Please model this.
Amino acid sequence: VGEKVSESARRHLDLELLVNEMLVAVQNTRKFEVQNRDKAVLKAVRSEQMLSDEDVDIQGADYIVVGTVQDFVYYRSVKPVPNIDNKYSRTDSGRLVVAAKIIDVASNSVKITFSLSDKFATGKKITNEKGGSPMPTHFAKMSRGVAAQLANQLVDTVFPMVVINTKADSVWVNRGQDGGLKNGEVLQVYRTGEALVDPYTGETLGTEEEFIGKVKVDRINPKFTICKTLKGVAVAKGDIVRRP
Model:
């Protein structure tokens, strides 16, 4: 938990629920097996020695996901109703922001860093009570929202969306109903080129990428999604598809 999160907000921050929602969301992608989340591993990650510490068993792990709650607000506003005794106008609101990173165990490097966020705000409610806090169900809903974003980001990072077929202006992408896509969403298409190799070390630094154009999500099926090309984009099988 980051230093900016107040002590009063921490009383409503259910980290166990948040982590469990993340685990469920990642497991529901059916693409990953969660192997280990022991305190020893988390401690080693925080000290940035997790891959060199012989006391930490991460054998078999491909990636480690680390998150920090950077911002958390959980607030109830209560105001007296004018000209009516013992009646109050109440609104609840909240915000949850988690900074996360995915660590590639094999290369001992951070593969990507990103931010996850969700929020809520209720309408005004007239009540006889002037105290209290927002219901825990609001935090649970924010946790599920953040967890879904994490699962989508993890899948997109480890298993990038790829064009698996094309026909006329239709493009098939290997992401279905569990991929977090929405009808009408616009995606970007890239084509990979030659590998970029350091001439001194021989290390592969990445690959060339050429921006091809954009496609629009047209129909989401259980296992794949059909998109439509925009402005006559010439998309080919094997091209990489990303969210903007």
Observations:
- Residues 10 and 174 are 40 Å apart (CA to CA).
- The first strand starts at residue 63 and ends at 80.
- The first helix runs from residue 7 to 10.
- Strands lie at 63-80, 88-104, 109-121, 125-127, 161-167, 170-173, 186-197, 204-220, 225-229, 240-242.
